[in-house]
């Protein structure tokens, strides 16, 4: 493999290992000091006294390995496959010879089952990424086992959406305030995705459910590029939600040792979260720029720099605001990432790596002004916003206080976070059976926030702060490879400080153990157990905390941050069996159990002058399940079928649930919320994913993606559902089939690929959320509109008269007309459109590869 590819993965630390033993073919005795060379690279090693050799920091790919020693025939093992964080094992037998013979060439047969896989790992490769019918790179794992997708949130093995760590080339990209990815990269810039739903190593912190690591494209030694476009615009009727996506990327080598890669992605849609049909005020415009520079002065010292910049801005729709939608909320999110990596490999057994990065994100929301398609949103001055309220100025012609027919969205927010991160780690092959991995990580943050609430009084509410919390971690792990048994034993120490005077820093210690071994030549058994922790989000620590004691003129019970929060904890156990049933047929079965404690929740604090609700580590969850995956491949067809059975129970589905369910609209502070366990909002009992790819006549290709699963649980309306039993009813069964048909043409060195993508092929429209009128029809009584005598109709000259309410146009609005209008409003307020999935959608695209 060329040196440029070696350099890329060295600087990113996304590598594997080659190890093996060199033996005399006749005597089976070890051969010491044999030369082991990876052809077309500067990497190699010499065997030790026992004939063992180790080559660390080998980039993923396929290699030819040459093994030689004086007096023996040279051997070349072709097509040795190396994967990220895996070990390729070789047993090389050399034949004695007294004359020089040409090298003995053999093809390396790498086992399908990897014995060093102690935890579940799913890899989504480039060929698969390009066909998956998703719009955002962070959603690539949506078709993997272990994943339940509730609306737009991804939940891994029954965990909350905030328990997943997102990374780009091993650099965390989480916004520490919200837990969302702070930046995005183009799907076309992603080379592969590594998804770890359990049993991950001690080098990973701030995650309890899973790791999603996007591995970006590597620069090429030759100039080449890619142009891509996909659109719904030419589709008729409801096939068109206004989606457009355009991408370009180029590999530009500057010198033999200095190479670059750049990508640009533009996306626009008229409805970024489609339902039954296009709704107003749901436009979205995104762009992403990504670049990478690699410098390899020597084979042992390497430098790399990468940077990304993204912006996402979108309007939101809310059925309560549909008659005043232009004054509802819009969001703009910006992110910047810069990362510098220095990698030093003094010999084949020792590796040292230093990564320094800066992650910046800014999030704004409020009421925006009108603007162009890709111009940054301009938000209205928050000081001039009008309190939203109801009234008679509505299509129903009567006074309705429930809907903001007049006024603006009542909040403006501008928050930002900057994370300066340094990470130093080493891989040391200290013994024949032991590889020691150690590391240190330090994060210094700046957290800023400005939130402005308008009100119907003269008292406005402003929450403004600037804090500098810090986090650091130390970890050590011994990777043991002993005579057929592979084990990982490690421990991680985490520390975080909230930067609030009088609040003590918090620490956590997380031991982890995993092991695997082959029970037969084709089947692997693995198991792991460990503790995983993560600090709370800084929104939940700082929001409104500096306003305590909270002013008494605020009538609504406030939700206040708590800087004394401790880390959340998960103890997870996983057992798995993986084996090759026959050639090209692989089966995997995983079972898992998770005990989750100290989850964030909310509790009422009764104090003067104003009671308030704040966060505490008080919630608990328990998850168990089973996953079965069948993978198959032949010359015409390949595919994967997975089934997941799981139970996710707990006392709270998200940190703010108790507050919004029991206190947000309830002034009664004497009420004590229930604390019993229930099936969480994202509990999905059965899930089936089917993925297949098949060759078609005339050089075509068909890719199919199918999903089937139970509906999620929900709480029905009324006091029984709200205050006693939660999530006692389930939504209907879910199902969807997507497909893509493509055909490639090659013209000289240019490849042009045309394709048609169809989402929801069978046009299934199932319910994904409960829906009800704001006022139940049975609760609307005629008596509520009858005034005590002497009754006076609303006359034409009254300030409360609206012609829309005067149904017979006689100049009067009678109680009966008010009653009919309220019925009409109630039926109109049922948000049934947003409660169902989108119809069939079709997109056409073209992909041009230039060489």
Give a structural overview.
- Belongs to the TonB-dependent receptor family.
- Residues 286-690 form the TonB-dependent receptor-like beta-barrel domain.
- The chain has 851 residues and is mostly beta strands.
- The chain has two domains: 3-107, Immunoglobulin-like (Sandwich); 216-367 and 409-759, Maltoporin, Chain A.
- It is built from six helices and 44 strands.
- It has a 22-stranded antiparallel β-barrel.
- A hairpin with a 5-residue loop joins strand 19 (284-295) and strand 20 (301-315).
- The longest helix has 14 residues, at 815-828.
- The chain is globular and about 120 Å long.
- Mean pLDDT is 89; it is low at 1-12.
CATH architecture of the largest domain: Beta Barrel
How many structural units, i.e. domains? 2
Count of strand segments: 44
Instruction: Report the C-alpha radius of gyration, rounded.
Output: 30 Å
Query: What's the shape?
Result: globular
**Can you give the mean pLDDT?**
89
Largest sheet: 22 strands, antiparallel, barrel
Q: Helix- and strand-based class?
A: mainly beta
The top-level CATH class of the largest domain is Mainly Beta
CATH superfamily of the largest domain: TonB-dependent receptor, beta-barrel domain
Number of helices: 6
Q: What is the helix content? A: under 10%
- CA-CA gap between termini: 19 Å
| CATH fold-level label of the largest domain | Maltoporin, Chain A
Family: Belongs to the TonB-dependent receptor family.
Subcellular location: Cell outer membrane
GO molecular function, one term: siderophore uptake transmembrane transporter activity
Protein name: TonB-dependent receptor-like beta-barrel domain-containing protein
